[in-house]
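Supplementary notes for students who missed Thursday's class. We covered one full example, reproduced here. Read the sequence, then the structure, then the short commentary at the end.
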Amino acid sequence: MKVETNGILIERLQEKDIEMVRQWRNSEFVRRHMNYREHITPEMQQQWFRSIDNFNNFYFILRFKGLKAGLGDIKNVDWEAGTGEAGVFIAEKQYTSSFLPVVGALTLSELVFKIFKLERIYSQIRSDNKRALRFNSLFGYKREEGQEGKESQLHYLTSESFFKATRKFFLLLKPLGFSTGNLVITIEPHDYKTDFGAKMEKLIRDSDMQFKVVKEGGSVIFKEAQG
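Structure (token representation):
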């Protein structure tokens, strides 16, 4: 599956990319901001991928200007409770101080609230990760009660607080060089090899958004209709 909006492309993580992601995660640049900081072996990465390759976990490679720049996720989704966990990291140093992390998080959050219709998402952040704490605060995240003094603290975000807090970010996209436009979701042939494709199609069709549907080379493409 691919999602294009806000001038970037996110692609559902496939097995062919997990070694690249392992290298990213093992780099000191990325690892120092993570709750899990141990070295990840190829065997551990394979086991991890098998555990998340399902419809309760969504991991996406972030692409910008053709470069694979980082990873975003919506994981541990509880469809009945309407909750999940979200995260994003940038692996290319040249983009860490750019607007790309914001755009990646915007795209994932739009998917969460517009298509998945989740009511609340959570993020676990180290108390010493000041950049992530500021970043999440700008998006409307609030800290759960009883987290004071903990090394890793739980924060939450609702749809209402997200769209209220990020309205200003959408206004900045074009001046900062990110194109704006309609959401395009492509469900690819490999997504239909399991029930992922059919389930994703149902979510899109059941959303409040209007899409034009195009079938092309085994893929089903949902293009947000013009307002």
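Commentary. The helical segments are 18-26, 28-31, 42-52, 100-115, 130-138, 159-172, 196-206. DSSP finds seven helices and eleven strands in the chain. If anything here is unclear, bring it to office hours.
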